[in-house]
Amino acid sequence: MTVRIGVIGTGAIGRDHARRIEKVLSGGKIVGLSDVNRASAEAVRADIAPDAVVYGTGQELIAAGDVDAVLVTSWGATHEEYVLAAIAAGKPCFCEKPLATTAEGAKRIVDAEVAHGMRLVQVGFMRRYDEGYVALKKVVDSRIGAPIIVHAAHRNPTVPQAYVTPMAIHDTLIHEIDVFRWLLEDDYVSARVTFPRSCARTHAKLRDPQIVTLTTAKGTVINTEIFVNCHYGYDIQCEVVGEDGIARLPEPVAVQMRLNASLQNDILTDWKDRFVASYDVELQDFLRAAAKGTATGPTSWDGYMAAVTSDACVAAQEAEGEAVSISYPDCPALYR
Ligand SMILES: NC(=O)c1ccc[n+]([C@@H]2O[C@H](COP(=O)([O-])OP(=O)(O)OC[C@H]3O[C@@H](n4cnc5c(N)ncnc54)[C@H](O)[C@@H]3O)[C@@H](O)[C@H]2O)c1
Ligand SMILES: O[C@H]1[C@H](O)[C@@H](O)[C@H](O)[C@@H](O)[C@H]1O
């Protein structure tokens, strides 16, 4: 069966996901596109999906009879209304992170999906599909003993002017928040944020870098550096210190060169390249489940847990250096 897909939000990642569905993956076809900037949807139709209909609104696209499943890749603050509409229409929905920009919004999605009685939503936490993280998890589960400390870094070369201090949490750290819950099979109990002096390349509304310390229920301490003006590349680092040994996230494959009297390799500069294979696998998974009218992979509950945690981390930014405690409600049976 070919799943007929509608894409809402045809900017950077919407365009890239449309490309992979049309040109890389099997079992899906783009039949609908929508963006508040209509020219962007028209351009994706022209370049990637010539048979697709461009809809005036995301709601019209969701309601269209020939759209079987929906990709929500618009700005974060607009995700909730589209995901709720997809659930109301009974259509599988892949939603990029964040599921919603507030914990209350994510909870409304959980409640709607639970009321529907079946999974329809997959959240775009693609790191769970990354070969390196999957290999790291195997080692953490079986080789290095119980985890004690995680040292991590999430570095972007640069960010736009519109990226402000809280976005370091809900736009960037949100990946670590989800992937460490999954990697350690643990929940967070507190968050603390420390600010070193800001780097020279940042702007007045962004304190950069930041160090976020999350403590888990089992007592593991996770220190993550968020540095979004690091300049040199797109760099994701993670090292888990266990009772018996240490495990590091593998570096992306890179050719080593002996050049100009130095030993060197290039570092990637774009998230699209760093996680290209993970995006392919997560969306292939989505197409496979959507063909059966359901969803798999990271759940609305995972999206909600990430939102609760990221709200606490933003409060911890404001409390600068003070610990903010985190607690979660019970998980509904649908997600256990
Ligand atoms: N998983 C990842 O690694 C990853 C990578 C990049 C972006 N993202 C997420 O994907 C989403 C989009 O990010 P992007 O980088 O593509 O941003 P972008 O600004 O390049 O594209 C977003 C698009 O959404 C459109 N849009 C905004 N509001 C809309 C609305 N109400 N209805 C329809 N379209 C609307 C904009 O016009 C724009 O074309 C964000 O939530 C972002 O966090 C995830
Ligand atoms: O939306 C992007 C994307 O999620 C990237 O994976 C992350 O590294 C960036 O910080 C974020 O702005």
UniProtKB/TrEMBL annotation:
This is Inositol 2-dehydrogenase. Its EC number is 1.1.1.18. It catalyses: myo-inositol + NAD(+) = scyllo-inosose + NADH + H(+). It comes from the Bacteria. Keywords: NAD, Oxidoreductase. Pfam families: GFO_IDH_MocA, GFO_IDH_MocA_C. The gene is iolG. It is an enzyme of class 1 (oxidoreductase). Residues 3-125 form the Gfo/Idh/MocA-like oxidoreductase N-terminal domain. It comes from Paracoccus broussonetiae. Residues 141-319 form the Gfo/Idh/MocA-like oxidoreductase C-terminal domain. Homotetramer.
